[in-house]
Amino acid sequence: MAGTGVFEDIIEGEVFKYYTDGEWKKSASGKSVAIINPTTRTTQYKVQACTQEEVNKVIESSKIAQKQWAKTPLWKRAELLHKAAAILKEHKAPIAECLVKEIAKPAKDSVTEVVRSGDLISYCAEEGVRILGEGKFLVSDSFPGNERTKYCLTSKIPLGVVLAIPPFNYPVNLAVSKIGPALIAGNSLVLKPPTQGAVACLHMVHCFHLAGFPTGLISCVTGKGSEIGDFLTMHPGVNCISFTGGDTGIAISKKAGMVPLQMELGGKDACIVLEDADLDLVAANIIKGGFSYSGQRCTAVKVILVMESVADALVEKVNARVAKLKVGPPEEDSDITPVVSESSANFIEGLAKDAKEKGATFCQEYKREGNLIWPLLLDNVRPDMRIAWEEPFGPILPVIRINSVEEGIHHCNASNFGLQGCIFTKDINKAILISDAMETGTVQINSAPARGPDHFPFQGLKDSGIGSQGITNSINMMTKIKSTVINLPSPSYTMG
């Protein structure tokens, strides 16, 4: 149960504490932020509403701790990360319980997220030792006009204080995808978890505490974005921001100043289906890609662009599978669970109403109870409908019938998003050509869009993000190059 056993230090009364200087503390504000259970729509947990002054103290502690951590041998950093990973996996049950109650993630998927996060941390430790343990040696005479009078030694050094802001849908996994690379690279880390998912993150942070990381190296501040959000992202003590979320990231990028940014900001992932595609494979991937976790994934299939000649057959196959989806509470491992908030449900409903008014074919009756929305396939969607372009982040999926591959590529590229896309065809040559033409960070061939495995590069174009994620890319992004040049009194050539 949340906040009990080894986690009893992280809560006092009914309010979970925030973490700084190696301790769990109550905010001087005396205020808390309520976390609403999406299923019951009642307050499930409460977390501290930290103040700006507390944020200042957290970042100051982080700066001091980072200087010492940077002197810690790579093998020791990796050893502590492996220990944290083992503790996290050992305590997967209470953390998964938080995910079920905070974000209505199905129980089995919640456990999977925690275990996957432990594996990510361990892989990160190993990868960090490999890539940070190597430097570069350059000689000056490789450039025209120079003798060999200079030796240049380059290495990767930490940035300083990394601010990590994960989203509600994978609060633990997308937090550790930032924490692991930051720590192995020698940075300190300040975590600002999403409100929905904050308690799961606090439990995860306690696993790092139990692993014995140095005081002040890792901090976790909770509170209202309106009060500490901009203050954190614009803080002069922050040296790097890694953010996963929505439109807020665009605002952050405009305000952040001269700090490296790593951002993933959503997508409208298109699924292009050609005439020769295996329609059973397509239907299975549309269900997995479009409706798992109720469509609340950046890499969910968000629009189906299918050739007219096979559209009827595909829609029939998808509808047959939609009818088998289990709708209900996350505790029962339902396929479709309540979306994260009432405002999200209202937004999704607005997209459905717009499509209805403009003549889309509803393959199922629109049904909603509270935050629970039944899966809905919309056929004959046209480009003038909002659902053709906007990201629903819910179990509602549009089908746009196309008459040529070029039409599908055009629709995909006309979006302001460019995260992922997928192509279904038996012709690999066509698949490669279409993939090259699609303006997305990743294209999946004959499979639904997906983030992972976690060591794969993950990036978006256009409004979908800045930079690239994935363990190796994240480690590199959270370091900078330092050069030391040795100047020789006269040219020197090995064996010369």
TrEMBL record:
Keywords: Cytoplasm, NADP, Oxidoreductase. Pfam families: Aldedh. One of its GO terms (cellular component) is cytoplasm. Gene3D superfamilies: Aldehyde Dehydrogenase, Chain A, domain 1 (3.40.605.10), Aldehyde Dehydrogenase, Chain A, domain 2 (3.40.309.10). Its EC number is 1.2.1.9. InterPro entries: Ald_DH/histidinol_DH, Ald_DH_C, Ald_DH_CS_CYS, Ald_DH_CS_GLU, Ald_DH_N, Aldehyde_DH_dom, ALDH-related_metabolic_enz. It is found in: Cytoplasm. It comes from the Eukaryota. Belongs to the aldehyde dehydrogenase family. This is NADP-dependent glyceraldehyde-3-phosphate dehydrogenase. It comes from Tagetes erecta. The lineage of its organism: Eukaryota, Viridiplantae, Streptophyta, Embryophyta, Tracheophyta.
